[in-house]
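Re: that backbone. C-alpha cells:
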C-alpha cells in the first residue's frame, strides 16, 4: 500500500492556493477580480521554460477568453469567443476553429461541431434533462442517437 499525504492551502478568500504532495506543488493564482489566472506545477516547471504553467485571461464580461499552455519555450493559446447572450460560441487556435457551438431557442447546446468535421447534436426532454446525443462522423450520416433513460 502507498500512503500519500496531500496538503491544500487556501488564501484569505477561501480559494485554493497551493496543493502539495510528494515534493510537487500545484500553485493557483488569481487576478484582482478573484478569477483563476495562472496555475503552476513546480515539478514540471523544474524542467524549465514554464513547462508547467497555464495562464488564463478573461473578457470584460468575465468569461474566459484565452488559456495559454507553455511548453519548452513555445505556447499554445486557444481563444474563446461568446455570442450576444454570453454563451460560448467558438474555440479557435489561430485560423482554425476547434469547436463551434449552436444553441436551441432555450439556450441549451443544440450542436457542437469540431475542427475535424465531426459534430454532435443534443436532444432534450421537456424538463431540460439531456435525452440524447447524436454523433455525426466527418463523412456520412449520423450514428444512432445515444439515449438517456431515467
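Recovered sequence:
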Amino acid at each position: 500500500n502507498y500512503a500519500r499525504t496531500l496538503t491544500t492551502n487556501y488564501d484569505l478568500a477561501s480559494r485554493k492556493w497551493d496543493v502539495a504532495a510528494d515534493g510537487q506543488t500545484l500553485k493557483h493564482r488569481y487576478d484582482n477580480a478573484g478569477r483563476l489566472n495562472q496555475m503552476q506545477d513546480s515539478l514540471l516547471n523544474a524542467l524549465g521554460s514554464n513547462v508547467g504553467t497555464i495562464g488564463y485571461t478573461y473578457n470584460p464580461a468575465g468569461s474566459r477568453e484565452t488559456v495559454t499552455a507553455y511548453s519548452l519555450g513555445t505556447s499554445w493559446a486557444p481563444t474563446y469567443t461568446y455570442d450576444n447572450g454570453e454563451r460560448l460560441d467558438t474555440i479557435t487556435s489561430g485560423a482554425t476553429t476547434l469547436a463551434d457551438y449552436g444553441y436551441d431557442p432555450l439556450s441549451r447546446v443544440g450542436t457542437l461541431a469540431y475542427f475535424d468535421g465531426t459534430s454532435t447534436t443534443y436532444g432534450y426532454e421537456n424538463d431540460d434533462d439531456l435525452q440524447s446525443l447524436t454523433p455525426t462522423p466527418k463523412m456520412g450520416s449520423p450514428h444512432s442517437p445515444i439515449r438517456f433513460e431515467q
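The chain is about 5% helix and 55% strand. The helical segments are 42-45.
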